Amino acid sequence: MGSEIEVSNSNTVVPNDLSAFWMPFTANRQFKKAPRMLVAAKDMHYTTSDGRQVLDGTAGLWCVNAGHARPRIVEAIARQAAELDYAPAFQMGHPKAFELANRIVDIAPNGLNHVLFTNSGSESVETALKLALAYHRVKGEGARSRLIGRERGYHGVNFGGISVGGIVSNRKMFGSLLTGVDHMPHTHNLAKNAYSKGVPEYGTELADELERIVTLHDASTIAAVIVEPVAGSTGVLIPPMGYLKRLREITSKHGILLIFDEVITGFGRLGTPFGADYFGVTPDIMITAKGLTNGVIPMGAVLVSSEIHDAFMQGPEHMIEFFHGYTYSGNPMASAAGLATLETYKEEGLLTRGAELAPIFQDALHSLKGEPHVIDIRNIGLVGAVELDPIAGAPTKRAFSAFLKCYEDGVLVRTTGDIIAMSPPLIISESQIGELIDGVRAALRSID
Ligand code: PMP
């Protein structure tokens, strides 16, 4: 049925007036002068409003891991809309949310056996942070209230997430944010690790900064440490060898919870189901979203260890164990999309396909070494970045000019600051990897 659903072209009519929609994370005035409109998508390609095909080199925003408009997912959503469109999320249940939680636990690292549903990465982050604080309170250790994040960490846009995150623009725009938060240094070391292939060699000792923060505040005041296994949005920053293991040792030693934000690294991006699998480190709480539903319907999931879960399951049975949730937690449409997505991943081996493609992707990406403006290239699984020489004081970054040129030439990449990032759908073919990298090469040669 899915592939036969007729796609109306009503979407292809671009309104004359674009002023009402205040777009997120976009220079609105600039965009609206020369809008880039996508009107359809199938498998590896978007169609633009002027009828061009654009190769999706970013899986949308790191989420469309199985490629676009996959029939099983389209069909599951259509069927669910007709069968049970919405069910109250509190005090009532519907089978697919329970089924999806089980299927997620099946593929999750051992020990993460419980799932709380959200509607986005940002909500998953807030849920995880609140859970960490509440966990220590139910254990009678309420003084553990400090949260530790990392410079250049991105944990979504809500207050907890921007506080533990390490993005300067958030502090510039919104002020000093939550108190009781510390940051470890980021792990990006251009001088020592430029052009690393996979996990960089230098910098394990940066994890010991955590020990310094613990000494400063005393472990009895610290609730949790949150990191992305690989920081994505701030430019694909891959942790040095042994770094995450060291964080795990330090947190375990001090009774501090370790939270992995796997919004990008989850669901096959690194060639393993989760980043935790890639690095052989299991956190206490794991945050996911994006690839859970192939980006098609907003949904996130927070995975929790049995130890944490069981600590809440005390007290009288009529008690609400965790006073938290959303109107759309475990929403039927999202659950149906999630189930169909996980089936697609399983049937096509997509959660590990990145491992097969990684060497090909790596070779292609590193062939950009020596192209104009390139000062670093880094990669892991099916995610990679090319960093460009910054131009001090220039109104437009070179990476943004390269992104525009790529788009014009039919290739979609992502840009943050001076970095071009790529994270294609896990169904990409070898020749499409070549096409993507050649698109970037041509763009680099064409910009000033
Ligand atoms: N955490 C990480 C690591 C992310 O990369 C993102 C989104 N790029 C988020 C959280 C926020 O997710 P969302 O945009 O779905 O709220």
- The total strand number stands at 15
Major sheet: arrangement of strands:
4-10-9-8-7-5-6
Termini distance? 49 Å
Domain module count: 2
What radius of gyration results from the CA coordinates?
Answer: 22 Å
3D architecture notes:
By secondary structure, the protein is α/β, with parallel strands linked by helices. It has 2 domains: 2-69 and 350-446, Alpha-Beta Complex (Aspartate Aminotransferase, domain 1); 74-347, Type I PLP-dependent aspartate aminotransferase-like (Major domain) (Aspartate Aminotransferase, domain 2, 3-Layer(aba) Sandwich). Helix content is 37%, strand content 16%. The strands form 3 sheets. Strands 4-10-9-8-7-5-6 form a 7-stranded mixed β-sheet, with helices on both faces. Strands 1-2-3-13 form a 4-stranded mixed β-sheet. Strand 2 and strand 3 (53-56) form a beta hairpin. Helix 4 packs parallel to helix 13 (332-347) and helix 15 packs across helix 16 (430-446). It is globular. The termini are far apart. The relative contact order is 0.16. 4'-deoxy-4'-aminopyridoxal-5'-phosphate is lined by residues 120-122, 125, 154-156, 228, 232-233, 261, 263-264, 289.
